[in-house]
Amino acid sequence: MPVSLGELARQFDCKLLGDAEAQIVSVASLSNAGPGSLSFLSGSAFKQQLATTRAAAVVLRAADAADCPAASLVHEDPYACYARIAAFLYPTPAIEPSIHPSAVVAPSARISPSAQIAALVSIGDRSIVGDNTYIGPGSVVGADCVIGNNGRLLTNVTVVRKVTTGDRLILHPGVVIGSDGFGNAMTTDGWVKVPQLGGVRIGNDVEIGANTTIDLGTLEDTVIDDGVRIDNLVHIAHNVKIGAHTAITGQCGFSGSVVIGKRCMFAGQSGVAGHITICDDVVLYGKGLITKDITEPGIYSSSFPSEPVKEWNRMLARFRRLGHLIERVSKLEKGES
Amino acid sequence: MPVSLGELARQFDCKLLGDAEAQIVSVASLSNAGPGSLSFLSGSAFKQQLATTRAAAVVLRAADAADCPAASLVHEDPYACYARIAAFLYPTPAIEPSIHPSAVVAPSARISPSAQIAALVSIGDRSIVGDNTYIGPGSVVGADCVIGNNGRLLTNVTVVRKVTTGDRLILHPGVVIGSDGFGNAMTTDGWVKVPQLGGVRIGNDVEIGANTTIDLGTLEDTVIDDGVRIDNLVHIAHNVKIGAHTAITGQCGFSGSVVIGKRCMFAGQSGVAGHITICDDVVLYGKGLITKDITEPGIYSSSFPSEPVKEWNRMLARFRRLGHLIERVSKLEKGES
Amino acid sequence: MPVSLGELARQFDCKLLGDAEAQIVSVASLSNAGPGSLSFLSGSAFKQQLATTRAAAVVLRAADAADCPAASLVHEDPYACYARIAAFLYPTPAIEPSIHPSAVVAPSARISPSAQIAALVSIGDRSIVGDNTYIGPGSVVGADCVIGNNGRLLTNVTVVRKVTTGDRLILHPGVVIGSDGFGNAMTTDGWVKVPQLGGVRIGNDVEIGANTTIDLGTLEDTVIDDGVRIDNLVHIAHNVKIGAHTAITGQCGFSGSVVIGKRCMFAGQSGVAGHITICDDVVLYGKGLITKDITEPGIYSSSFPSEPVKEWNRMLARFRRLGHLIERVSKLEKGES
């Protein structure tokens, strides 16, 4: 920063309408932008804010350029283009290759000389940390793990054991990868713990949100494929497989041995019952529940929007008396009413 | 401790019925109280326990005093009055201003001389910790954070970056404040991460439960207003604004850009879809889902109580065949049946 | 390892059909087993994989032995038997009695000489750690806690204060036990915090999953009885009592003062409203909600499986217009239609 619009257009493959020498120093929303700010217009929801924006330039589609009071960076996918420009303008702080003296690293662990191990980190036996990877304060990597290159494990993360990850992994604070799955055999004396002996394999370009948990496989590995994005407080049980580029938002839960296809999307608080298989390109709406295999791509739902409680209670009472209503209709059909 | 009833009545603005010299040494429920215990009677649910309590004194409403076998501390809001007396009798342990030698504090951080930084804490660049604030073992405060006065951040808490808080903040163990929001732009090559550049602003007198997560704003700040109370395992996404004195119980989830009014209450496992605005004084029952703006205060619900599974399956089957029932009624109306 | 089949049959009380000298070196699923592997067949779901397994031996019921192409270890409860054999073949690594030099242990704490306190652990005033118990990296045990014998507290666990546990406790990473309950009294000036003065009592043989939270009692203790198994991201509020051998899967929530019987099972994302009592031997299906006391053992449900969104929206619209349908039926009954 600052960067000229001409430079941004060149680097991010946009058509520039406006002054190539104008300087961008920040990004902002259309309504909060000021001089030197770059903004973006993606969907139609914010279109009305375009006319009055004080942004220096806006990333938008060609069709919206005529309505833009500022310079335009025209791109067919303005949101992704904006995301890339913002990442360029606000780069992740460079890491400082080092092992903090307060970190405790097992002698058998191998830490890349270009990695940074922050304060109060613990790295276990035989684990490997790749090039340019950052392990943040308070994090713990247990035994027999391989963390790929260019990863960022933020604070107080735990990678328990037998976890192998690809490159560019991001784990947000409090994430737990590789905890024992919930395997218990009932006996007359109570539950017997079933040893959880598999690992977790994570592909490239995976990001996992704060306090999410992903369990080890029971015998084989739990698998998170390339490009998967997982939000906060998500539960992924043992033996689950999540296909590439699937996105999972906050507080979703996946029971044991679930298999999810590619490019699926799960809205918040939705859940999938154990041993279910879901094909590619399935979207599940918030609070949805899947209890049977899904073999057709598409959008699925099973949630009820809230009503004022009096109206809801009436609806609930009618639902509970449906059997009675059906009887009344049957009587009418028989001419008994 | 011990404290005389007369002293408690004076200090907490109660009318005392009983011996002002009697000494209180503990608090207890009505049914478990013994000599020297103070108890309370708030709602009607526990009224029947009053007659047999062995408490030395009970905080209660004037209307209940006649039925109290012990001394009465009469107050129009006995539960809040009890809470204040209990806090007086069982004060939070005083902090010991110090920085534990095992803590790792960035040279550019500013720690109040009256603050306590416990063992194995990490404090990042340019962050500020206020007067009389306690940061518990294993906690991490990242860069560019301001923690107000008289705060208590318990163990293994993470405050990631760009988080500013008011006074008297309580963060329970495992809380994560300031993690990246879930911002992703879909492209033909997969998801592109949208940089999360905002911060989190937290007002005064906020308490946040164990393992709850609150994300940074995308461009502007996520905001938690004064007096908000949040329970465990709650998910608050980027750009959310929670109005003053709103209470949120366990496992609720708030999607991105949700705006919640003042004095709302959310029961457990409820959720609000993205970009929804909810006015002041809304109550949502447990497992409720809000998918449209709410502009009228009141109680809302969308949950079904459980039934024995056979009965539930019958109800479910009827629900799924409602279209068939409607057809039957239509036929009857046309005289075709 | 390796261990002979004869030895396994003897030690785990199985009838061996096959070569007693054959050596077992690993366990695997039926479909992935190879030479030297032990597998198991429990339910009927995997029966078809038995014929083609390359396992050296299979733990199974007598009725399945005739169909087994490998040696059979016959047991009436093959899953539990397999679990015990697997635990024998893959023992938890022995602990190394020690206190890591980076750990911070209060002078008044008492650590058994046979316990292991790992790197970067903090142990608070007056707490006790039992024989052969392991406290993993980054974990914090606060003041006035008693951790029994043979426990394993994995990484970044927090045991806050006043928590007493039995033997053989397993706490997975990120677990928080003993955080303040959500107790707040509303006043015209906002919420007043109600001091949480009880503790948590945990029985023997309890296992608790990653990032689960269990709150202190308000006045008396929160109680988790012997043999209880709790999965990840579960919320157990103050004053809850969970009966022996109850199993709770991921993301379930139990509101304040709930009392759960023995041998209950709660499937994922289910919840119980405050002050509810549930008898022994109750099963609640996934996403279920219990709002009234349950006094009869059995299976309960209140969840809706997902449908393609168009079909779901139709079903939802019919549900919302049930009142209208009832009116139509009433008119028909009155001969008005």
Indicate the topology.
The structure is a homotrimer of 337-residue chains.
Chain A (H helix, E strand, L loop, with lengths): L2 E2 H8 L2 E3 L5 E2 L1 E2 L9 E4 L16 E4 L1 H4 L5 E4 L3 H12 L8 E2 L4 E2 L4 E2 L4 E2 L4 E2 L4 E2 L4 E2 L4 E4 L2 E2 L4 E2 L4 E4 L1 E3 L4 E2 L4 E4 L4 E4 L2 E4 L6 E3 L4 E2 L4 E3 L6 E3 L4 E2 L4 E2 L4 E2 L4 E2 L4 E2 L4 E2 L4 E2 L4 E2 L4 E2 L3 E3 L4 E2 L7 E4 L5 E2 H12 L1 H12 L4
Parallel strand pairs in A: 4-5, 5-6, 6-7, 8-11, 9-12, 10-13, 11-14, 12-15, 13-16, 14-17, 15-18, 17-20, 18-21, 19-24, 20-25, 21-26, 24-27, 25-28, 26-29, 27-30, 28-31, 29-32, 30-33, 31-34, 32-35, 33-36, 34-37, 35-38, 37-39
Antiparallel strand pairs in A: 1-3, 2-7, 22-23
Q: What's the number of domains of chain A?
A: 3
Give me the count of strands of chain A.
40
* Strand order, sheet with most strands of chain A: 8-11-14-17-20-25-28-31-34-37-39
Q: For this structure, what is the CATH homologous superfamily of the largest domain in chain A?
A: Hexapeptide repeat proteins
CATH architectural arrangement of the largest domain in chain A: 3 Solenoid
What is the CATH third-level topology name of the largest domain in chain A? UDP N-Acetylglucosamine Acyltransferase, domain 1
Range of helix content of chain A: 10-25%
Approximately what portion of the residues of chain A adopt beta-strand conformation?
25-35%
Based on CA atoms alone, the radius of gyration of chain A comes out at: 26 Å
Which shape of chain A, going by the Cα principal axes? flat
Individual helix count of chain A: 5
Oligomer: homotrimer
Q: Span between N and C termini of chain A? A: 81 Å
Give the integer mean of the pLDDT values of chain A: 96
CATH class bucket of the largest domain in chain A: Mainly Beta
- Unreliable stretches of chain A (pLDDT < 50, length at least 5) are none
Q: Could you describe the largest sheet of chain A, including whether it forms a barrel?
A: 11 strands, parallel
